[in-house]
Design brief:
174 residues, 12% helix, alpha+beta, CEN-like protein 1, 4 helices, 5-stranded antiparallel β-sheet, 3-stranded antiparallel β-sheet, Phosphatidylethanolamine-bd_CS, PEBP_euk, Phosphatidylethanolamine-binding Protein, globular
């Protein structure tokens, strides 16, 4: 059943451009303002994403620890994403069966502000092998999820979801 969850990630080129193919094994629910669930490929207006989302982590084990990464692989624009990836958020040591507020924020949440084109904002959840010190990257630009995962021995993600957003114009806000 979980393998069907990877298909939209592959269609949206999250699998391939951001992470390698993986099998989702943990339930992750991402929600802005208690009513805007993040669903793969759905659009969320940037004005709805100014506050950090609530991220609930499933899993079977409270002793397990997870790292959440939020990244934009389309910065500054999808046709020429030369800043790929732009890092928006990292939270580590999130206990299983809880939510992100129980973790340790090592890179503060940055609101999506797409300027050119439609951007993908990707939430990736990794199961940590141990409680560990994950070092924040030196820069938000040129972030690389695969390299970060390798440097911190995180392996492949155990869950992922992404939404699309584009610059708001006065006409689109209505």
């Amino acid at each position: 059943m979980m393998s069907r969850l990877v298909e939209p990630l592959a269609l949206g080129r999250v699998v391939g451009e951001v992470v390698d193919n993986f099998t989702p094994v943990v339930k992750m629910d991402v929600m802005y303002n208690s009513k805007n669930h993040v669903l793969n490929g759905h659009e969320i207006m940037p004005f709805l994403t100014t506050a950090r989302p609530r991220v609930e982590i499933g899993g079977e084990d409270m002793r397990a620890a997870y790292t959440l990464i939020m990244t934009d692989p389309d910065a500054p624009g999808p046709s020429e994403p030369y800043l790929r990836e732009h890092l928006h958020w990292i939270v580590t040591d999130i206990p299983g069966t809880t939510d992100v507020s129980f973790g340790r924020e090592i890179v503060s949440y940055e609101t999506p502000k797409p300027v050119i084109g439609i951007h993908r904002y990707v939430f990736l959840l990794f199961k940590q092998k141990t409680r560990m010190t994950v070092r924040p990257p030196g820069s938000r630009d040129y972030f690389n999820t695969r390299n970060f995962s390798e440097e911190n021995d995180l392996g492949l993600p155990v869950a992922a979801v992404y939404f699309n957003a584009q610059r708001e114009t006065a006409a689109r806000r209505k």
